[in-house]
Amino acid sequence: MSPGRSTRFSHNLKDDAVYWGSPVPNGSGGRTYADPIEIKVDWEDRQEMFRDAAGQELRSSAVVYCSQDLEEDGVLFFGTLADLDSGQEADPLTIKNAREIKGFQKVPSLKRDGYDRKAWLR
Predict the structure, then answer these.
(1) 90 dihedral zone (left: phi>0; alpha: psi -120 to 50; beta)
(2) pLDDT-based confidence at 2, cuts 50/70/90?
(3) Residue 91 half-sphere exposure, CB side, CA atoms within 13 Å?
(4) Which CATH class name applies to 10-121?
(5) Which tens digit of pLDDT belongs to each residue from 33-71?
(6) Whole-model pTM?
(7) What residues does each domain of the chain span?
(8) Are 84 and 95 in contact (CB under 8 A)?
(9) In Å, what is the CA distance from 65 to each residue of 20, 34, 78, 120?
């Protein structure tokens, strides 16, 4: 397995998710998201305490393991692009059950042959 790939969790990535990277201001007071992509994850609907980038302690609504880096303030939806209604992909926060990424952790694997990645959603 090449460095940069998830190791410990990669065999468990059997769930489909749609990912939107962190939004950027659109100049009109709103936010614009990058085009969504489908990724494989291990999605667990469970609460877990974590600290966000500002050090604030929060409780997640879901924990997601993945094989790529995700951005805090990005959004994940459990499902595929085909599950979305036309036009929903432009603003993921209008999608029922889409959740914001409020924490992300990337740590070297135990064997130091890749990384383990975990996101906390709210």
Answers:
(1) alpha
(2) very low
(3) 6
(4) mainly beta
(5) 989 999 999 999 999 999 998 999 999 999 999 999 999
(6) 0.87
(7) 10-121
(8) yes
(9) 16, 21, 13, 9
